[in-house]
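Components:
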Amino acid sequence: MSNESSMTPGIENTHVTEGEQLQLVTFEVAKEEFAVDILLVHEINRMMELTRVPQSPAEVEGVINLRGKIIPVVDLRKRFGFEATDSTEQSRIIVVEVKDRVIGFIVDRVHEVLRINANIVDPPPSMISTIDSDFVKGVGKLEDRLIILLEIERLFGAVCSELPDDGALIAA
Amino acid sequence: MSFFDPEILQDFLTESGELLEELDADLVTLEDSSDDPELLNKVFRALHTIKGSASFLGMANLVSIAHVAEDALNGARKGEVVIDQRFMDAILEAVDILKGQFEELGRGDDLSAPPQALIQTLAEIAGGGAPKTAQEAAPVETAIAPEPAPAEQAVADGGDGEWPRRQLMQLEAGKSELIDFMVTDLEESIVSVQENLIKLVDPTSRQDAALELAELTEGVSRTVEFFEFAQLGTLVDTVNMVSEHVGEMNEASIGQTMPRLLAIAHLMAEQTDGLKIGEVVTFDVDELCARVADVVLGHELAEGIQIDANAPIEVVYAVDQVQGMIEPNNGAAPAVAPACEVQASDDATAQPVVVADTTDATAPITVVIDDAPAKAAPPPAKVEQTIRVEVSRLESLLNLVGELVIQKNRVGALARSISSTDALSQDLREAFGQGSSDLDRITGDIQGAVMRTRMQPLDKIFGKYPRLIRDLARKTGKEMQLVVEGGDVEVDKSVIEHLGDPLVHLMRNSADHGVESPEDRKAAGKDPKGTIKLAAVHEGSHVVIQMIDDGAGLDREKLTGIAIKRGLTTADDAAQLSDREVYRFIMAAGFSTASQVSDISGRGVGMDVVRTNIEELKGTIDVDSTPGKGTTITIKIPLTVAIMPAMMVGVGAEQYAIPLSSILEIVMPDEEQVSTVHGRRVMRLRDSVLPLVSVGDLFDVPESTREKGKFAIVVELNDQVAGLMVEELIGQQEVVVKPLEEDIAGDGSLSGATVRDDGGVSLIVDIGRLIAAASENERALSA
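Structure:
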């Protein structure tokens, strides 16, 4: 199922466009390194107090007050099925905008802003050991490590359930 | 029509749209009181204005229908046409067509042509009432004229002493294209103004002339305002003012006014000429206008400035120091100078002194200018009474106020904690406390002021109902009237938006099921004409809207029968229900008493929607009825839903907000007051028993953090009462309601979120859904 174009239009594009640069924000969840397109990221905040919402979907950890706007926050550890841990000094909430919706997600730590060439990004392998490959947009093969590019809309599947499933993580 | 500035079109749509809406209501009233000349005039004027603006915008299809309707009304106004059923039907249909055309305009579609048959009918009704002018009736589809005459010639402001001042006309692109339309229009209007001014002198024709004048000048005034020609506006308004007050003036005053008005009309013609060649001409008319105003207000003019009733225009100019109108010609001028026939002076010279070429040799102008340097007091500045503001700007203002309230709460919390520390000196603490309470007060004022900007009178929706009832009456063959009270009560815009549909549903229900046929009513000893009353009053921070019909009322037996059939209750339970509880069934989804589904109502969806809409507004709805006497539906809604007072409560480590408007009282029940019935906890409070809901259980608050609920918050909605058990009362707070996105709000026991004074988020409990959930559980358990 690796090359279903309907799922990975962005990647297809990055393959044909030789030398296109991707700018990514990379972060760590349960010792794995992930990335999202920097254009989707609104801001990165320190951990703040979450308000639990009773009877909300399981992946919604709670809501926060982002300068007067109430936004849902998803814990990526839970979403990926990793063991839940308490937040640390390094924990961050990355606020992204997906299809006019602002959503935060909790990560263990934020690494860096990375510029990579699109041609080193491979489509998602059929099997990634740690997380559901549905969430994966592609894998960036750096010299010393691999970075998993996230399919952000699938990630918030339930939260974004009303959105049509045609978005791309990487703005082509 | 693509050459119109979208803004101009939007202005037209808004302003004329409002007129159209009023028209509907006024027409229905007119049907009942066709002898009310005031109303007839109002209706006529509204149509006239719409037509005028539309012709000005070159909307032929709109003008054609408005025109025939106006003609018919004009006939009625003159008593030539009888206002009967056929007349009203045709006029109302025309209004509907206009509405349709407005919608098309709003969508940016081309205007559809009005049905020829209707135009025919209206034209027949109008009978002898021929179109006023061919120009008006004809589509004004004229090519855009080239840029007006050479404007470089015009001298800019020639300094203080020189009149008239001539300035290049400067208009926004969208408007300058329309100037040609306007000039033609103006010229015609000014001719009519002058004709009517002459009639005004004669006491027998005075009243009619005054009416005509008022209309004419209102129309001109609007055009002039649109183009922002201030002085022309002042002149027109002066004539308008006189036309409205002439009835109260004595002959002497009229004698003083008339020559001056003729002079004004002359000046208007001069200015119109100026516009033709792209100049804005201003004269020194302050004195003139001020004196007319004085006379109208009943002040005696000083001897020196009294003028003979037949004084020629030039004498007026001299006496009233209208500089710039000098240039003697020859001989004495007739009292009435047909200056209206002024033609465009092609040689737009840059002379400071301009005399219009007149085709009529009898209109020479001789002016002896009195060089009195006395400077007239400036006329009172024209104050704009209203401005239009985009809703989005008000929304963002409201959001900002919301933020301000949150920060105010925060500062308040800080002030409280500071007041109990020794970290600061006494003086500082007091100063901080004072500052905080001032901030509190001012924020409250700002909040109130911003809220008021969003308030709109209920008439905005009430105004549509007379027409609705009229149509329903015709459709059902019943006789009924609508009485509206309290249309001036103002509520928040969002309330207006949510209230319209529910009221229509209720109105239809009353008309269809409530009010009986005339025969039945007569048989029951009632007035064959049914009455539906719609009344609104303020009640504290709420507005109460009642809809009262004097129809057949609700049939308890019939309602319980249906309710049992639909499984909403059992025969045993039904017998114990109070009348009100039974009536409440009509608001259940899919509940219909109508044996036949009509296209008016009866599908059983209406009342359900009504209830949902009202609950969305945090309002309540109550039904009361007396068989044979009628039904009363009472809706109570808060004035605004954006910011509300709430009680903050603690459950475990979490805080929730409970709307204060739903709270009846807060009690600490004893052990013996609480008992368990059918596995449900209930509390005895005085002589009633109410179900208890543990907020902690309901919201799955982690057990480990919780204590036993100590307080029972007694809440009421729609006559249903329940107690909410909480552990801690934190205090009352103004909360700014923030929407909670639906898919994360769970099952809907929450109506939103709010930001606390410590910056954290608390969720707002939806009392309606909570009570509903509680009583459903109860039913399920007891079954």
